Amino acid sequence: MAHLSSAAWIAHDVGLATAIGGTLFGRQALHPSLREGIHDQQDRDRIADMAWRRFSWVNLAAHGAMAATWFAGRAMLGGRRVSRLSRPLTLTKDALIVASLATGIASVVIGRALGRRVREQATLQDREKIETLRRAVGVTGMANLAANVGILGVTAALAMKAAKSPTFPLFSRRMP
C-alpha cells in the first residue's frame, strides 16, 4: 500500500514542479527570447500562442495531478490527526491549491482568448484588446506562480512536521 502513497506524492510533486517550471520558463526564457529574436509583433504573438497552446494541456494536467493527489490524501488523513500545528498548514495548503487551480484555469482560458485574438487580428481596436488580454494573462500567471510557490513551501513544512510526528507513521500506513 505504501507504493501507491509514494506514487501519489511523486505525482503531486511532479505536477507542482511542472506548473512552477512552465510559468518560469515562459516568463524568463520564452517571451524574452521572442522579443529579442523576432522583430515582428504578429510573428512573436503567433509563435507564443502556438507554444502556450501546446503547453496548456500539460499545465492543466499538472495542476490536476497536484490537486487530485492532495485532496485524495487529505480525505484520508486530515491535519488534526497529525498535530495541532499541522492543522493551519493543511488549511493553508487547501486554500493555496484552490487558488492555484482557479488561477491556472483562468490563465489558460484567458490565454486561449488571447490566442484567438492574435490569430484573427485585423484592427487597432483588436491590438488594444490583445494588450488587455496579455496583461490579464500576466496577472493570472503571476498569481498562479505565487500560489504554486506557496504550495511548495507549505508542502515542505508539512513534510518536516510529518517526519517529526510520532503519530503520522501510524496513520500514513493506512493510506494507499
Q: Short description, anyone?
A:
The chain contains six helices and no strands. The chain is mainly α.
What would your notes on this structure say?
There is one protein chain. The chain is mainly α and 176 residues long. It has one domain. It has six helices and no strands. It has helices at residues 2-37, 41-76, 79-82, 86-120, 124-164, 168-172. The longest helix has 41 residues, at 124-164. The chain is elongated, with a radius of gyration of 20 Å. Mean pLDDT is 87; it is low at 172-176.
| Percentage of residues in helical conformation | over 70%
- Poorly predicted runs of 5 or more residues: 172-176
Query: Multimeric state of these chains?
Result: single chain
Q: How many domains make up the 3D coordinates?
A: 1
Span of the ends, CA to CA: 5 Å
Number of helical segments with 4 or more residues? 6
Largest sheet: none
Order of helices and strands: HHHHHH
* Number of strand elements: 0
What is the radius of gyration computed over CA atoms, rounded to a whole number of angstroms? 20 Å
Structural class: mainly alpha
Mean pLDDT reading: 87
Strand content: under 5%
- Which overall shape is indicated by the principal axes computed on the Cα atoms? elongated
